[in-house]
Amino acid sequence: MTDSGSDEFDPTAPDQREIGREMVDDSTGLGSLMAHVYRGEVDRVGTWRQRLDETTTWAVTLMAAILTWAFSSADNPHYILLIGIVVVTIFVGIEARRYRDYDVFRSRARVIQENLFANALDPSQGTESHGWRAELSRDYRKPTLKVSVYEALANRLRRVYLALLSVLLAAWVFRITAFAPRQDWLTAAEIARLPGVAVVAVVGVFYVVLLVVTFWPHERHAKGEFREGDPDDWKETDQ
Q1: What is the pLDDT of residues 63-95, one digit of tens each?
Q2: Which of 94, 90, 110, 105 has the alpha carbon at shortest distance from 52?
Q3: Which residue in 41, 56, 10 sits closest to 156, CA to CA?
Q4: Residue 59 covered by a domain
Q5: What gap in Å lies between CA 174 and CA 192, rounded to an integer?
Q6: Where are the alpha helices (DSSP H) in the chain?
Q7: What is the residue range of 204's domain?
Q8: What angle do CA 60, 49, 213 make, to 5 degrees?
Q9: 127-179: per-residue pLDDT in tens?
């Protein structure tokens, strides 16, 4: 096998990229190193996954408090629900940023799984990416975010936050209609001197934008376990 430390190292050569079998058959220094690397990446994946869950927990807790207070009395202003929508949207932004960091470590773990461990278990299938070692090396030398802000926002909205924001919208509509039967719903939607028509229009435009961000077709770059892109195209972006 070609010396991986040689100046003539070709990451796309079969004997260089398919090192999984050798690492299982022989206790090599590289094998031991990669085992520690993989454990470290999985640990960081778990840490960032926990941070994502914490953001969602805070958003749900805040929602519960706002909904309880908004409907505890007819005298409580309806716009507290709109404030809740704004705050939950801020949580979406925070979670999207954390998701981009989380994907860095998850994508590294997937590269190791599909090219090293999978190859070690069944060398006849080869590796998924011919240049995986060089790609991983470059990412360790210069870590990059591989998911755009837009994709991160769409992911978090689709998975969690669109449902939460929809609950707040439904609660607000109920609050200015059925919960205020003595007033016209446009009148009930007023905030100080801001007319109800303007408030409803702003809320409507905001939710249309949410739907566009969530469902507009786009190319996926996140490297997950169940939805893969081109294994030879490990996107690097700082958008």
Answers
A1: 999 999 998 888 888 899 999 999 999 999 999
A2: 94
A3: 56
A4: yes
A5: 20
A6: 14-17, 20-25, 29-70, 79-112, 118-121, 132-141, 149-156, 162-176, 185-188, 196-215
A7: 16-215
A8: 65
A9: 788 888 888 999 999 998 988 999 999 999 999 999 999 999 999 999 888 77
In the predicted model, is pLDDT for residue 192 greater than 60? yes
CA 184 from chain center: how many Å? 41
Q: Is position 197 within any domain? A: yes
Among candidates 54, 59, 61, which has minimal Cα distance to 86? 59
Using an 8 Å Cβ cutoff, are 17 and 120 in contact? Answer: no
In a domain, 208, yes or no: yes
Note whether residue 58 is domain-resident. Answer: yes
Q: How far apart are alpha carbons 82 and 79 in whole angstroms?
A: 5
Considering the entire predicted model, what is its pTM? 0.77
Domain count, the chain: 1
